[in-house]
Structure formats: C-alpha cells, structure tokens
UniProtKB/TrEMBL annotation:
Residues 1-23 form the signal peptide. InterPro entries: Bact_solute-bd_prot1 (IPR050490). It comes from Paenibacillus crassostreae. The lineage of its organism: Bacteria, Bacillati, Bacillota, Bacilli, Bacillales. CDD domains: PBP2_AlgQ_like_4. Residues 27-42 have a biased composition (Polar residues). The keyword Signal applies. Residues 27-56 are annotated as: Disordered. PANTHER family: ARABINOSE-BINDING PROTEIN-RELATED, DIACETYLCHITOBIOSE BINDING PROTEIN DASA. Keywords: Signal. This is Sugar ABC transporter substrate-binding protein. Gene3D superfamilies: Periplasmic binding protein-like II.
Length: 558
C-alpha cells in the first residue's frame, strides 16, 4: 500500500483509484490495489466489455452465461411487503441471469439483524440500505470496497462525470479507505422544508409565491404571525417528526447543529480549517431564541416536540394548523387527506438565516451497499469481481437504475417523443396517477427503497411531479450551495474515546435544546448551560477532532 503515498498531492489514497483507473478495467490478474489508467489497460476483455463467461462494461448490460445467485439482505417495508412474484425479480433475471438468495427481515428490525449477521460472520454477500457503516469496519467482516471500485466501470464513470470526489471524502475512514458503495445522484435533492396552506396565507394577505424565495426565518415568522392574526387560531405551526426535521434544517442557516443533524455538534470553519463546537455558542443561543419566540408568541405549538406524527398530521388535515415540516412525497399524500376541499398546499423554499441563504441539502450521496468479506472468501477474487460488476450494473448504470425505479419499458412505463418516462396510467407512484388501481412498488416491486437510489439528473427529475420539479428549481436558483464538511477520520480507539465524550454531551444538549425552546429553562441561565457543556467535554472533543484533522488532512486534499 506504500505506493498510494506517491500519488499527487490533493488526492486521497483510494479516490485516486476511482479517478485514474480505467472506466472499463477488467484485468482480473492485476493486484486489486493497482492504480490503472486508460493507457495502461491492455486487456482486450475490458475494452470490449466482455469476459469469458459474462458481459459487463460502461453502459453495457451485465449478463452471466451461467445462472448465478448472490445472497443479499432485504429490508421488508410494511408499505410494500415483499412478494416472491414481483416483476422486479424476473426482470433482473431476464437481463442478467442473476437471482438473489434473500435474507429477509422487517424494516423495523433491519439494522439490528444487520449488526447480528455482520458481527457473527454470517452476513450475506450484498448488504444494501446501509446508512452508516462505521460500526462494522473494525469487525473485519466488511470489504474495503474502495480497493475494488476500479473493477466497476459505471460507478467510476459517475464519480468522474459528476465530480463526486468531494462527496466521497465523507465516507473515508482513518485508513484512507471506504467501506460502503454509496448511492450517488448527479444533483442534490430538495430535501425537507415546510408545507403551508397557501390558500390561508394568501387570504391573510401574504404573497407566498412572490415573497417566499427571499424569506429569512424572521420573515417566515412574520408571515405566520400575519396568518395567526387573520385566523385567530391558537397556533399556526404544529410540527411532526417531534420537531427534529425542523430543528435540523433551521440549524444550517444559523451555523449550528440540531435535530436529525445534531451529530456531534461539530461545525467546520473552512477559512480557519478547524472544527468548533457550535452548540455552546452565541449562534446557538440566537437559534434557540428564535424558536422560543415562536412558542411564546403562540405561533408554534409546543406539542410539536412531543406529539406523534399522526397527531400533528390530523391537526393539519382538520385545519387546526397551517404549517408542517415534511418532504414532497408526503405532500402528495396529504392532498387527499385535507378536510377543507379548497385547501391549496405549497412547499416553500427553506428560509435563509444569519449565515446566509444556503441550500440545506449538500451531499449527493444516499444510503449504500456494503459487501461482506464472506463474498470474497467464498467466491474467490475472480468470481468476486464478477459479482461487483453485477452490483455495478444494477446500482450504477443508467439501465439498471431505470429498471429498479420504473420497471420494464412497455410494461410499466413508456417514453414520449422527447424520451421522457411516462408511467402507465393505471399505476400509481410518488404522487403520479392519483387514484390508479395499481402501485409501482406494492404490485411490481419497482421504486423499491432497497434498490432505487442514485442516478443522473434526468432520472431524478423523472420521478417528480411538476410541483416538485418547481420546488427543486426554486432551491437551485435561489439558494447557495454549501461546502461539504470533512470527516473526522478517527482510529477505532479514538472513535471509542470520542463516543464516550459525545454521548452524554449531546444528550445534554438535546435535553436543554427543548427546555430552552419551550420555556422550561430561562435564557438567564445560559452561562450555566455553557459551563455544563464544557464540563461534559465539548473542548476535549473539539481538540481531538482538530488533532485528527491535522493528521489526516493531506488525505482529504487540505
């Protein structure tokens, strides 16, 4: 592995392989760590995308001459329960001659089962839908896939064509490798924001479409106050997700972390090139003060942070509230449940704040696929590479991604004169074809969250309604992209030490966040809060994070 230290500066250890290896490399006789370039590739099998018993290659269909089956974990979603006769399975087999030996578990138990199988050494070969692989790296049961991506031409093409190098840095571990193949999108998504009752806001005199693109959070509060005064309702905003999505997206505009995105409280200053603990700062105090004022002014329902999602939704459906945090997929579902027939729902662009008008979504990575060490041990290097090339086709080629999302052309969808995908009118999916008798995921298995993530901009937009495309366009044209935060590439020992600090520290921050917002704790005791944050190890954690960054920053291109 010493040769990686000779790669030109500003390039990471393993991502160099991604950038420089030939996009159709297939030299099975080469070392898996060999950095291949197009000029170095002399294997005719790679140039033609063919191998002795299977075809593969950039934008080519993977097909095995002999039938092959790969073991795979499968998360069974209650909204579209597994069916053995889904068209998804036969469509994959027809194209590739590949079937799956599934280890199926309920979605709610998937993470627990994954941990059990990996840590016991009994994991199936392919482990999709992995959001965080960190806990499995030290076990030695997961392949460092960055050593093998040179054999995945469609994956490498996406990295190169879409400039994914910075995004992939987030997956690097302390050894300079990564252990999961993430889903990759050419463009970032819209993410979560606020669904409002546009009809009520406009009746209150708020010019929603004319103003929302320029709203800061203070402007948004003023608009909600206008609605409150007009309607006389006790609250305008009653949230779901126990406030965690709202706290997350608003934190971005205040330069702090909270809610779903609280993580370890670290924010990276790109000018100073150092981490700071954001959640004991004046920025954090201002952030909490904003939500505290919403509660005190009777704009935000304090039950937002304790109520179950169905309770929050019921208030919105009945017209007891006019704002709720959500994503565009739920907006489509909400439309059919509104009790006021003239309700007009609209998703606003996430407001800006003291730190600017930033896009909330930055990374274009999705959950991804881990590969079990069992696959390499059982199959041997040559057959292991063959399996990776199937994974490469299914999850990273446009053909495979289109199949997993939309199904079979002529059966579940057609294309119009411009080449746009048109879902059959009798099939419902993602807000398209409301009232259709069939569902793409329930009845066919396509549009399945286990497989359908990642693709080019055209594919991403193809699953959006006209309203969602407008929402994403508003984000991209009125909000500024943010720089990605570097990972803290800690060793297992350092990770353990940092977790011992972070767990009680962040638990305390989360508890006090809600107390300050709901008024259970006075801001007069802010100094006591910051002293306790320090006592819980915020400075120690920050110092460790910065020491690790200094040791590893050359691998990250800093």
């Amino acid at each position: 592995m010493n040769k990686f230290s000779k790669v030109a500066f500003m390039v990471m250890l393993v991502l160099m392989v991604v950038l420089t290896a030939c996009s159709s490399s297939g030299n099975e006789g080469a070392s898996k760590n060999e950095s291949l370039t197009p000029s170095a590739n002399t294997d005719s099998k790679d140039e033609t995308g063919a191998a002795s018993d299977y075809t593969f290659g950039e934008d080519q269909t993977f097909h095995s001459n002999e039938a092959v089956s790969y073991s795979m974990m499968y998360s069974d979603h209650e909204n579209y329960p597994y069916k053995e006769d889904w068209r998804l399975w036969s469509a994959i087999q027809e194209k590739t001659n590949v079937t799956f030996d599934l280890s199926t578990t309920a979605r709610t138990e998937y993470e627990n089962q994954k941990s059990l199988l990996v840590n016991s050494g009994d994991a199936p070969y392919i482990i999709p839908k992995t959001y965080d692989e960190s806990a499995f790296v030290a076990s030695g049961q997961i392949v460092s896939v960055s050593d093998w991506v040179q054999y995945m031409p469609n994956y490498m093409k996406a990295v190169k064509d879409w400039g994914m190098e910075e995004d992939l840095k987030a997956k690097l571990k302390e050894d300079g490798k990564y252990y999961v193949l993430p889903g990759m999108w050419e463009v970032a998504g819209g993410g979560y924001s606020y669904i409002i009752r546009k009809d009520v806001f406009e009746a209150a005199g708020v010019d929603v479409e004319g103003q929302q693109a320029n709203w800061t959070y203070d402007d948004f509060a003023a608009a909600m106050k206008q609605v409150k005064d007009f309607t006389g309702k006790p609250y305008v905003f009653s949230d779901q997700f126990k406030g965690d999505s709202t706290l997350n997206i608003a934190a971005v505009q205040y330069g702090v972390t909270a809610g779903w995105g609280v993580s370890n409280g670290m924010v990276f200053d790109h000018e100073k090139q150092q981490f700071t603990f954001a959640n004991g700062s004046d920025d954090f105090k201002n952030y909490l003060g904003y939500f505290n004022k919403l509660v005190n002014d009777g704009i935000m329902d304090p039950e937002s942070f304790t109520q179950e999602d169905d309770v929050a939704q019921a208030k919105f459906f009945k017209g007891d509230s006019y704002v709720i945090n959500s994503n565009y997929q739920l907006l489509s579902d909400f439309k059919s449940k509104m009790q006021e027939p003239n309700s007009e729902l609209y998703m606003i662009t996430v407001p800006g704040g003291p730190k600017g008008m930033s896009q909330v979504e930055t990374s274009r990575l999705e959950n991804g696929i881990m590969i079990s060490q069992n696959a390499l041990d059982d199959l041997g290097e040559e057959e292991f590479i063959k399996m990776l090339r199937f994974v490469d086709w299914f999850w990273y080629s446009n053909e495979g991604q289109t199949l997993s999302l939309w199904g079979v052309e002529g059966e579940t969808y057609t294309k119009d004169a411009e080449g746009n995908i048109v879902l059959n009118s009798d099939i419902y999916f993602n807000g398209l074809n409301e009232g259709a008798t069939k569902q793409l995921n329930v009845d066919y298995g396509f549009g399945n969250g286990m497989f359908a993530y990642g693709g080019n901009a055209e594919l991403k937009m193809s699953k959006m309604s006209e309203g969602e495309r407008d929402y994403v366009n508003r984000i991209q044209t009125t909000r500024e992209p943010r720089k990605l935060q570097p990972p803290i590439m800690a060793t297992p020992e350092e990770t353990e030490q940092m977790n011992l600090i972070a767990t009680p520290l962040i638990d305390y921050v989360k508890t006090m966040t809600l107390k300050f917002i709901t008024g259970q704790e006075s801001f007069e005791k802010w100094n006591e809060y910051t002293a306790q944050v320090e006592a819980n190890g915020s400075t120690r954690f920050t110092d460790m994070a910065n020491d690790i960054f200094q040791k590893t920053k050359s691998l990250l291109g800093y």
